[in-house]
Structures
1.
Amino acid sequence: MHQTFYIDIDEEITSIVDRLRKAKSKEVVIVVPKRAILIQSIVNLKLLKKEADGLGKELIIVTQDKFGKMLIEKAGIAVEQKLDDVAGEEVIEAEKVDLDDAVKINISGMGEQRDVETRKRVDKIGSDGYYQNEDVEDILSAEKYITEAEQLGVNQENVEKITNKELVIDVGDDLKKQKSSFSKNMSKRGFAPMDMIRNVEISEDDLADEEEKQNGARNEIRKTKEELFHRENIQSGLAKNGKPGEKKVENFFALSRRDSADEYKSINVGNNLKKYFITFCLIAVLAIAGAAAYLFLPKATITVFEKKKIQSVDLQIDGNTSAVGVDLEKEIVPTNVISISDELTKKYDVTGSKNASNQKAHGTITIYNEFSSSPQPLVATTRFASADGKIFRLSSGVSIPGSQNVGGQITPGAIEAEVIADEAGTAYNIDPTSFTIPGFQSSGNEKYTKIYAKSFKAMTGGGQSGNQAVKTITDTDINSAKTKVAQELKPSIIQRLKDSAGADFVLLDDAVNIDDSSYTLSNSTGDAVDNFSVTVKMKASAIVFKQADMKNIVATAIAKKGADGMQVSENSINMDFGKSDANFKDGSIIIRVHGSGNIIPNIDLTKVKQGLLGRQEDELKAYLSGYTDIDRVEVSYWPSFLSGKIPNYDSRVDIVLDKN
């Protein structure tokens, strides 16, 4: 069973020795990170090895630091690449006591007593008799060897090769002396002497080549290593009672700590310089990028607004259905003729009256057709005879639908119609009954019996004797109703014509023709009714033309009237149409129009643009004062935060003329 310790990269040898003394297991494994202070000095490792031997503990160091592994092996300590290569059960480490922490606690005044025994054991490391003369000489010779190897000016990989070449013999002797009880796989440890000799062979030519390549770095490495190890300082501290080879531990550890501090100080200075250099480069890049953005990134769009000048013309334009397209020179536009029909039914009150004794009864009957599947027309005034022989006549003509065969059964066609008594008087106010058509008696019994009528309400309105007045339809009522219904239908049918033409076409009121209208009345003059209905049917046609064709002709005429090279904004064209003459026989029309539009001055935008490049916005007004046709300019920038100055480069500026 073994106990494992993990040390920090900057942990001092005194702390590690103290932890080794406190280890409860005979077998101790120390896990060391790369570049740790412990494995950077052969002196530290010799101290640790001597302490382990004195305590009777078996020691293995686990690290992946190549240079450190060479020093560990030189010190005679077993070394492994990974913790997994160490076999055996691990003992959980007891609570650690950090010497530095103990010192800090004592200084902070918390009143805790430092472990006196621990202090004595640690302090004993630097006693006069801690090392024998031969031990100091071994340490110094090893330290001297490492320093001389580093002064060759080669990199760490070559140092490893050279050192191993001379250390393999000592390594083999040290490992033989160490009687470890660890259960390990020797093939995994891989530091058998013969294997190491094969792995580290190097030719003198290769070393000379590498030395020549590293010539520029030798002086710097030599200087750093000499300061790190301080050979002179170490040797100067080896005098006690005039005996060479002995030194005080206090001086040694003071020098070691100073070397470590100097090393890390130099590293910190290098890091700071690197940070300053990176910061300087970043600021320089940002400054260059800002200057480039200011010179090349901005883009501006200049919109020129010209001073408005309105020009007008009066034209008489010909429209013809035979024209293929608009003719700007002859001022001819193509036309289309569209037609549509519509009808409207309205009910109106009667205004006439007459004596009731002359009033005829009237009512509604339903006429049936079982005779034929074809419709049967009946003219107005067709006679219907009631069951008691009273005659009633149709108020208006109707067509009775034909019969239908539904599921093998004959279903007669039917239609409702208004009838009026043939004579006045109350005798015709009869109850619901059936009717026949006397006129069909000569057409055969089947037609006479299968075309018939029925009333489901009593006839009313038959005049009483005396001077009682009742409402009746007059000719004035009928004429007024026809006029009203026609006037109401006309706007509706014109709107339907416009909808049929589409939004791109113009329909003038003078270009609409209403054909003769037909009217249908529910009652005749003299009928005694409270109201009656009128149905009007209309057919209308119109000549239309495209609005864009008319604008093109007006714009061309305005441009001709002005100076050479003058242009007209089509979006500003306004047209007022006068009376038109339409011929619906051939689809031709004469269109009279008053047109006006804004004149676009002939401005050399390229010249204006060249004059504006690189100018500040507050300079634009003074520069543009020389252009009498320009009202103002508006400038938009991209990106917007770089506004205030128009870019110097032509490719970064666009100029357009506002035609609205």
2.
Amino acid sequence: MRVNGNWDIYSQRVGGRNAAPIVNDPGRNERGVAYSPDGSLIAFHESNATGGIFVAGATGEAVRRVTENGFDPAWSPDGKQIAFATEEINDPTSRWGDSTIWVVDVGGGTPRQVIETDAVQPSWSPSGERLVYWRNIGGQRDIYTVPVAGGEPTAVTNDAAVDWSPVWSPDGRYIYFSSDRGTSINLWRIAVDQSSGRVSGTPEPVTAGVQASAGLPRLSSDGSKLAFRSRVASVNPVAIPFDPVAMRAGEPVLLDTQNNIRIPSGTSPDGKQLAYYSIGQQQEDLFIGPVEGPMRRLTDDPGRDRMPMFAPDGRSLFFYSNRDGRWAIWTIGVDGGGLRKVSGPPTGAVYVNVSPKGDRVAFSDDAGREVFTVPVAPGSETAPTKLTGVATGSGRAFTATGWSPDGSRLSGFASGPSGRPAGVGIYDFGSGTTTVLSTEEPFLAEWLADSRRLIYFAKNGSELVVLDTATRSRTVVPVRLPWPASEEVFAISPDNRTIYYGGMRSEADIWIVERK
């Protein structure tokens, strides 16, 4: 649970009221706790850019590190091994890159890779022979199983629904998982043969009427009890008055109070219009509207449309979408017409950035390891150009999220193997080099009009920071945010006088269902 901004591990007796701390380390955020089969040990991961699997006694004693990286530990049925993934999952609709699954002995040693394709949140079959996990392919989230010894994965689901957080039932007959295949995210189960991983039935609903997103199911050893998390979240646009010279902020103003998700990601060149998107909802669309007026839906289809940015002429928007089966860069007129695919490499394209002249866009591949540029003129059909010098050292990659007003540089974040942000960086077109300026973890850093300073939200969206790229001086802008920034995606007006961000509100509960 989160206490005073820090994530620590607590336990609570089933049916009890008071939670007691097990691991309480103010210098480290711990998540993903899992009890060993005999209940004598716990495993958990450190929540940062690289992670790391730890093991401790059931009451938190004798904490020791087992791996240098990794997230979401899962115990083998005999308690001798732990499976883990290389990316931490907080929201199934928001992924940083590709993850892989590894297995390590509880006593430590060199981990062994199980599968090379994208795979997260592993869980063991009761026989100990297979792992169930979910993966992201072009924006589609599906569940698979794979032999622990390695081999070809077997699909459990293959449809447009978001399927995630799978676990095997203790008797090995079912896989339980979370899915939005109904009207909201609930728990489902599907019959499988645990020896082969092949499906022997169709998905069946397990929960309904929770009035929240249900996920992370866990079953008791005898299968009579099911625990899960329910979570309610909304993101509302907030405007912050800002003085870019004095670097002072005014009182934030809430622009919309509806209980939905509307994240501002772009402002029109005249500063009068905002573009929004709705990541994490069952249908992810684009919206547009006056700064202080009602917004209208710009797209309305099954495709996941994300992070719209205005073209410099203000007549169209660029965004990325999986509407044709793989992430790619698209453009659409502000009136909803002229929808057109711009480009994308075979590996997919995400995080679009528009050049100041509007003649090119920059983007990253969907693995978060390469950056490309491509002309946007209709009919150009030019292959994307991969930028050289993007690697930042120490196994980190650079993901571009902003183009400087003078056109000379890109801003973005450096990421480690997990894909999660691990530093603010800039790419210089002239020298073809990338420089990491800080070790903070913002997702997006916007350029101010001077093409020298960057502004971003730090500390999980709770702190507004201005960074001078020449001196590397860091200034915290005093402001009382009503809510932290969602994924740190935001927009800034052309005159730099207003910052627009999505204020994140969420709350979660733990539920237990008992079979009578």
3.
Amino acid sequence: MKSQNITDWVVQVFLKKNIDRVFLYPGGTIAPLVNSCISAGIKIENFKNEQGAGYAALAYSRISGTPQVVMVTSGPGVTNLMTVIADAYYDSTPLIVITGQIGTKDLKSRAGVRQRGFQETPTVDITSPISKSATLLDTVKKVGKYVPEAFISSMSGRKGPVILDFPMDVQRSQSKALPATNIIFQQTPNLPNKIYSLSKIIHRIKKSKKIIILLGNGAHSLNKSNALNSVIKKLNALVVTSFLGVGTFNTKHKNFIGYIGHTGNYAANIAVSECDFLIVLGSRLDIRQTGTEVDEFVKNGKVLWVDIDKTELANPRIKASFSINDDLKNFLNIFSKSLGDYQSKPDREWMKKIISIRNARLDDVPTKNNKIQPRDFMDILEEQTGNIDTIVATGVGCHQHWAARHLSYKPKKKQHISSGGHGAMGFDLPSSIGASMLEPKKTTICIVGDGSFLMNIQELASLKERNLNLKIIVLNNARLGMVSQFQLITFGDDPTTGDVEKINFSKIANGFGISSAILHKKKDIVHKVKWLLAKQGPALLEVSIDPLSDVVPMLLAGKQMNDLWMNDGE
């Protein structure tokens, strides 16, 4: 067998997995692999910061459903990427992270030494707790084994990031011992679908009159599932989602009530608190969904919890009456067949009440002043984008929840991506760039607050270079709204967050060569939104919103889901 360059072989693995581009910020210890990518015709997507590259890859992965490759150099390259890795891990996004590393000779001689090589960090040690696996590729044999396995592992079970730490000398070496790339992926076993009885569950369901289906982040895998729709019809179930589950179901469907939890819709929280059977599909029921009073969660009903992650099921925060460890598609197929031609007879008066609460729109009720209110703005944005194929990416803060509450979403048609478990400000701009790179014909809208936008604002340069059809909406309230709201509720004052220097983001965008405008007055909302959507290429609209607008209602610590803070002075 002919000797071959190690990095050339790795790139052949990329090509076998249909990787046509890699996301990176360059550096010395990753340069050999980058050069092999260039030689093979793989596109180099270079960003202005490792976090920018990582979030673009993350969004590309999340929307495409396939793991993308992000590459960074050792030391600060790795540490700058840590936020992205954590985000991918907690929100179950497949990602292949390849980090450069100093040579194996220095690594092996570092016993007790703080740092042996320049820009050295113990990558495997610091990334292991926030990844599905982290491996040092310090031998050719490990390269041959773990590079292909990374693509399999990141997609198996509960998805997530896989870290490959690649020493410089191994990248530069050659070998005859690497496996042929045309056979390395033929070893993936096809696991048979589970078969089980649901008779006890269905017996209890048939006694229930107030059934709700909760769709979590895992339900994105269902797309437009016939089995899910069949179950909803048979059970006459109302549908809610988790925050990350927003977009798994058509939010304009007559049975959809909203998303639940800390910043969820009022009607959705009330519905879950009063239901007598809750079917949880692909959600981990974290504290931001259930609140702190877990003993009161669905206190008058039963909970069926279905999840791919058996560890979550084995360590529940809430008491589940039934737990099933399975893929959602397989479960729903079995469930739908097991129900047969059953047709539930729900409590129609209760359903009517819940739908009436939903229609009353008690979320973020606009105050009566001359300042732009978040819900008013979102309503007009919804009117102007209602029939457009759209991807909405947000940062973290008040804007994140206003966008989730008041815009419509539909699988594959109007998609929603945001940072959930890690809650990382700065997710917004680079993720929206990654989404727009994948779906250039769709309108991608980046909705961001003035605080979150500053975290990765340098990626405006990356946006301009690509001239993407990306529209940025900066809701500028000169306030770190979400934390300010928490401080005011808890301590009565917001000294660190409530009086932020107002920045002219329109001028900053112009400095990067991006068209921009500022919206100050209510009467101009329609005109300025139309301008933004009609503008060719990237554009930014800075919206001066009422700085006193809060996210209302809110599920606070110590409160049950039907006892929400309404900002009524109490």
4.
Amino acid sequence: MFTGRKEELTFFLKWINDIKLEKSQSTALLARRKMGKTAILERLFNITFFKNDGVIPFYYEVKETKMGMVDFCQDFFLKFIYQYIAFKTRKREYLNPENTTDFTTVIEIVKKEGLGYLEGIINGAAYAVTHEKIDMLWEIAREAPKTIAERQNEFIVQMIDEFQFLNAMIYWDKDKEKVANTLAGGYLSTAESKIAPLLVSGSWVGWLMHELMTMLPSRFRYYYLGNMPEEEAIEMIYNYSQHFEVPVTEETAYLMAQMAEGSPFYISSIIRSSIRNKDLTTAKGLTDALEYETLDNRGMIKLTWMEYIASAFPLINDRNAKNVVLHLCKNRDRELTREEIRRDLNLEMTDGQLEKKLKALVKSDIIEQGQTDFDYRGVKDNIFDKVFRGVYEKEIGQFDIKTIRKEYGQAFERLKTQYDSLLGKYNNQKGLFAEYLIMNRLRSHGREDNNLLKSMTRYLPGDFNFCEYVRVWHYDYSPDRAKRFNIDVYAQALSPGDYSLIGEVKNRDSKKFSKEEAIEFERKYREVKAAEHPDKAIGFIFSRTGFTQDAEEYCQEKGFACTDDERWLTG
């Protein structure tokens, strides 16, 4: 399911590698909910763990659930210890241990695994838990990664997800009455570590930045996770379309990517929408799904944005605050000063009163801070604008919900015109769509259409049959390997006696598949076979415009199945 984010992965993999040179500063990964922060952290953990190249990864998510301080520290500490053990022993079962509350068990494990140097710190944590020495326990738990890295001359990356909840969900007492609202401040010194720096994330951008700036000033760099580039967004649409078995067309994939502005949250919500009779193969069906998700109380996009709104408006729930948000939405292409906002809306309040409202809205991610503390702007997002207007504009002035439906229709008409003008110019997107069609064909009708598919394909082995596949997917490059590579289609056979397919797809308008491309495909084909160890496999090349003579001969010599039959794309 993980798609794209190539720029982000490249940046953070280098950042993690630079820890070994003590060059990396603690960093905060910032984005609203459901933009893929957790997926990126988990991906970075997996790559770093399996790469095994001198940096030990630790991942912890601070849950949005109340926890007593002792329970939290014990959970944090033991999860770190078990992940450390898993890395050092290369035994993945320690990543998900059956018991994460028993210190006796973990001491037995470190003895058995030859990691006896961990006994001292484990015994110290166990003593602090037993005797409820809370300050001591927090010190041991928080400093454990840095302490062990120093003692063992190692490097550790600490990934803490939803960092802002440290000050909101952890309580000093068992009865959970006294919130530990300064807990994050304990990282003031720890975050400066060069051998165990932190990579923290948060879904409440304004809230997290407020905590970092007030309690951990100058300790973190900020990395903002934006929307996906068009190519990655369309790739995600095809990926999710296959996974959730929701058909799309080349046109509607383009329309969805543009309308969602590359937001993985919006794309996921539209494809997974619970609207009845969902049809994402037409512009009307896409419009209906988007309307449902943004205007209906059951829509996931609306529900998620309402969570942000609900966090702000209990504090400043008045007509003026809503009017401010609407005004900034309508002018979201530029920043407005407080003075401009007050003048434009004829607000009868002091600058201090307005600033207080605006700061609360920024902290809840309803509006954004501008270049200075005096400037503000609306969320740069055309869908949030419609969600907010759909809920509140009628309260402020004359408004008909049909206005938004009309705007969606007009936007899709403009995008369809744009799509038609670009048709044929985006070879890469055409290739992605061809991959999507071929993967669907193999996944859904491989065995059923065996004879037809064989008749359309040259150079298949005599014992070859299209079969049932346990998985069919776009095999993306792996940054944890020495060489990066990409295979358009990998169809993994369900039964050991059947052939897996390792395929290349070219959906170009003119250029034929060349011998040089065939040689490059052979290199990637061998890489995948070496990485995946299929029982039996064959290379497969679809080229809509055919093959050069020397490429055809080379493929026949190497035993690569070839086809230029467009019926592969129409079944």
